[in-house]
């Protein structure tokens, strides 16, 4: 994933937030120990690659563009999770957090992850995320995008089913939220052009590939519709049950 002006500062703030610190701590708690090699898929700024050096002799840090960091015992490589360039069973562990929610070819990516793992796969994804919230509207093609480019949603069953050759040996949950909307509010917000979507995201439009940006101006009718949608969603949140923000799973691979 490439960087944008100010991206490093924004990402550093995100990494230092209490929610992110708790998530990273949990992932490092559950990652298998006493093994030698790990592949970090979607390495981005090297945050997890660096943390993984505390538990593995060598870390391979993979991203769609060549990672631009230099860390001891970390090998940066360019690659695609849907067609990994490594032999079968090449890494003791494959670590994949903040990635699978972005990949349209999800089954292919998970098949590749399981293929190159010798012992285990560690997965971290949003849990039961309502991707109707915080959607954006592309100013170029006018199509609606999911927040943060999250084209997939997950629960325990979904993660396990994506790795049929593995068995889940550990599952943990991090954070809590009651954020959900409803079909009517989401439809109204789409009509209003999704003015409060997550336009600060790095991800480009999933339809036309151009950079997202917030609407510059909106007619009064759209402003009224957006306000109505927001009020309905906030009213609903008073009755929504809470659920975790993230699910983390260790999936053991039985190699014969």
Describe the protein's topology.
Blueprint: H1 7-15, H2 18-30, E1 37-41, H3 47-52, E2 58-63, E3 74-78, E4 91-97, H4 106-116, E5 117-126, E6 136-137, E7 144-145, H5 156-161, E8 166-174, H6 183-191, H7 220-237, E9 246-253
Parallel strand pairs: 1-2, 1-4, 2-3, 4-5
Antiparallel strand pairs: 5-9, 6-7, 8-9
Helix pairs in contact: 6-7
Q: How would you describe what is shown here?
A:
There is one protein chain. The chain contains 7 helices and 9 strands. It is globular, with a radius of gyration of 19 Å. It has 256 residues and is an alpha/beta fold. It has helices at 7-15, 18-30, 47-52, 106-116, 156-161, 183-191, 220-237, and strands spanning 37-41, 58-63, 74-78, 91-97, 117-126, 136-137, 144-145, 166-174, 246-253. 32% of the residues are buried. Residues 1-7 have low confidence and may be disordered.
How do you describe this structure in short?
The chain is α/β, with parallel strands linked by helices and 256 residues long. The protein has seven helices and nine strands. The strands form two sheets. Strands 3-2-1-4-5-9-8 form a seven-stranded mixed sheet.
């Amino acid at each position: 994933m490439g960087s944008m002006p100010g991206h490093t500062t924004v990402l550093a703030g995100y990494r230092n937030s209490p929610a992110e610190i708790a998530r990273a701590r949990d992932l490092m708690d559950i990652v298998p120990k006493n093994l030698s090699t790990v592949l970090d898929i979607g390495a981005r700024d090297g945050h997890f690659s660096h943390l993984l050096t505390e538990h593995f002799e060598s870390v391979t840090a993979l991203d769609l563009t060549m990672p631009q960091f230099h860390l001891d015992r970390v090998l940066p490589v360019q690659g695609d999770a849907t067609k990994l360039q490594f032999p079968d069973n090449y890494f003791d562990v494959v670590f994949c957090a903040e990635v699978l929610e972005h990949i349209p070819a999800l089954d292919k990516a998970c098949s590749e992850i399981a293929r190159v793992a010798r012992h285990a796969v560690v997965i971290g994804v949003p849990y039961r995320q309502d991707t109707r919230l915080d959607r954006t509207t592309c100013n170029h093609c006018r199509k609606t995008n999911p927040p943060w480019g999250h084209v997939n949603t997950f629960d325990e069953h979904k993660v396990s089913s994506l790795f049929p050759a593995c068995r889940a040996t550990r599952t943990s949950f991090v954070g809590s939220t009651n954020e959900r909307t409803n079909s009517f509010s989401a439809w109204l917000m789409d009509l209003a052009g999704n003015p409060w979507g997550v336009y600060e995201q790095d991800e480009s439009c999933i339809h036309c590939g151009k950079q997202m940006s917030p609407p510059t101006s909106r007619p009064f009718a759209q402003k009224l519709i957006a306000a109505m949608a927001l009020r309905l969603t906030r009213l609903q949140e008073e009755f929504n049950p809470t659920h975790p923000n993230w699910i983390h799973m260790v999936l053991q691979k039985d190699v014969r």
